[in-house]
Amino acid sequence: MATPARGISTRALQAEQTRQQILETAQRLFTELGYDATSLQMIADEMGLTKAAVYYHFRAKHDLLHECMKPGLRRIEALLDEAATMRSRRLRIEHLVTGFVDFLIENRKYTVMASSDPATKRNKLDDTGEQIRRRVITLFFGENPTGAERLAYHAVFCVPDGMAELSDLTDEELRETLHSTIMRILRVPS
What we know:
single chain, 190 residues, 10 helices, elongated
């Protein structure tokens, strides 16, 4: 049996493992059933826990949703950090679009659920989401984007809403479709 890391008690390690299992179960149920249709009791039942045990780790269901989204947000922030170091606008956009498309493909089921579930649209992210949006538009178009550039930016971020319509495509077909469409929206020549 593995011994816990120095400074971390067995109890704390078990609590962290339970918390992670709750997150994984919640994300799976949110994806399968939708956010509104998933209750904390369902998550608890799925895991053989009491609802109070779930509340011990998460005060409310929206806290679970936000926590499920954090790894994706960190990945997007890392992508933005990488793009910010690129001097060429074209390379920066290509990097961002490729990273965004890869993210959508890797999280395909969750993306479809998040874009079609009205509850996920109601549960807006904190300031992090707004900061990310501002960084992306600046990386795409600079400090003073034109009206057409702002509209193109918003059109790109509506693309995930259409992914349910593309469920018949393979990952590679979807990757090519998303990449070429987004690049055209952003008016980046091939």
